[in-house]
């Protein structure tokens, strides 16, 4: 399951501090291993160089008697005079470390004569035989009680060309004389060191004593531990090299080098801690430095992130208070980074939000004022009942609906529906202006045509700079004469439905929108109503032009069907039915235009509520 830190501090710890710490620790461990390997290789190269130098010294000492013996042979045969032979033997004896030279002739009679007699005898034998000198071999060191010293023998077989017998030349050398320079070397004394042969016999070591009569048989190298066994196997495969023991750092490290003139190998074994003492010191210093730097880096990171998280917490708390409608003091902007910019933007947002809330409160007041300007109740008399509604898509709207009783005009009543271009505050202000002008002018003498012409002229003074306008339909019902008059100022015609004939018609007429042309003269339309129930609907275009999520408009036809189906209902019920069906039609799509409806229901003389029903038709006819 992935780690999901819940707070910013946890995210900082998991995604910043912890990876930084692991990265630094990985770099320190990698650096330690790299330097450790370099030091081990350098120690190996130095140790092998020392072994090579010491082995060369032993090889040079051993090479001298070998080279002198090689002088005895010319073309593979000993074809020299007795004086030369004796001279070479004397030169071999004079070499440092050579104890004795023994010559055994093919008759297996050891040489026990003086040098002069030996020479004479050899010269005699020269006349009878030719000799060949065999390969020189080296014996293991052995303790000589008489000499109180360990010796090794360089032996070369003497063979006659006729095959009549064999003899040999044996050069006895002090072993300790050969290795005294090795034993005196500093590296020999400061480490475990060995001189071993190919079979693993220890010829000399830092643990052996020079004079030890009990040392009759050398110890075997490779019995002590795994490192010695691995070193012995490496000796059989390579002339020189290094072998590492177990552990990290390795407990012990060995180096070896083969001699050239003898089947011996010099081996040095050193403790890993001693070899890696510099790297151990470096490791301690490096680890302490890395730890200090890591803690310092983590401290600065934590300090920086704490400052960031603290500021973010302050912004979060301020945002929570702001969500509850509490406006606190501005947040302090103490940095110039992104967090400082965030705090500055939050302060700016808070100021603007406060301004918008104040504006919204003002809009709410404006909405309340505007709603108070609309009729709160319907109108009803002996033969007519009126009801209507205005639903705005914003806080305030531009639609205008009004019912104006005119008692000064013999009980007449006026119904007005207007639609100001646009939405919002501007449209609402223009609507209130139209309402004020109309209510003020309609109370004065004059025909409807004259009244509307005067209202238009006055309105144009306010709209000449903005280009705004308003469509308006004014209908006046005369209950005494059972007639209607209307003026159409660019608005949609009123819809008239006759339940008796189940037919629709429209109240049309010429006229342009108000606020466009100050010289426009409007005309009044008048009609005597038949003695039958009628339903008149005056609406704004938001009723039939609002769309559903698919982009389809509600349309006037649906409005007619609702009117026909609810003809027996009251005007308020018809209005409610239309608005309910419209809301259901729009679904989740928001209202895009103001919706205003005014329904006028006129009954027959004596009947206040019509019971006539009929089926909706799609045809429309003008009233006769």
Provide a descriptive summary of the structure in words.
The protein has 624 residues and is an alpha+beta fold. It folds into 3 domains: 9-177, Beta-Lactamase; 189-267, Beta-Lactamase, CATH 3.30.450; 378-602, PPM-type phosphatase domain (Phosphatase 2c, domain 1, 4-Layer Sandwich). Helices cover 43% and strands 22% of the residues. It has helices spanning 8-71, 82-93, 115-128, 175-184, 186-190, 226-237, 272-275, 277-323, 338-373, 424-442, 448-463, 542-545, 555-565, 571-586; strands at residues 98-104, 131-138, 142-144, 149-160, 166-174, 192-197, 202-205, 240-244, 252-258, 264-271, 379-380, 384-391, 399-406, 412-420, 470-478, 483-489, 494-498, 503-507, 525-528, 534-539, 595-602. The strands form 4 sheets. The protein has a 6-stranded antiparallel sheet, covered by helices on one side. Strands 1, 2, 3, 4 and 5 form a 5-stranded antiparallel sheet that branches. Strand 4 (149-160) and strand 5 (166-174) form a beta hairpin. Helix 1 (8-71) runs antiparallel to helix 4 (175-184), helix 8 packs parallel to helix 9 (338-373) and helix 10 (424-442) runs antiparallel to helix 11. The two termini are 82 Å apart. Residues 111-117, 123-129, 211-217 and 606-624 have low confidence and may be disordered.
